[in-house]
Amino acid sequence: MDITALLAQAASLMLTGMVGVFVFLSILIVAVKGLSKFAAPKDAQTQPSSRATKSQASDAGKIPGEHLAAISAAISQYRNQHFQSEK
What we know:
It contains 4 helices and no strands. By secondary structure, it is mainly alpha-helical.
């Protein structure tokens, strides 16, 4: 076989593989989207009222004091353990 025939066969094989992968991934995307709609809970499909959304948004920004104290204590302990050895 000459080089031209080999290059044509290689291009054909490459194109066939790329088309196969594209088709497979397209089918996979459609299947995942379809299954996610099928498996979604009924509550998630309904739109929440504006009042519930506002109260959830205001509560989401607040961190309880106990959590802040625990985080601050952990940071202090880490700094004391790791940065005292450098001094």
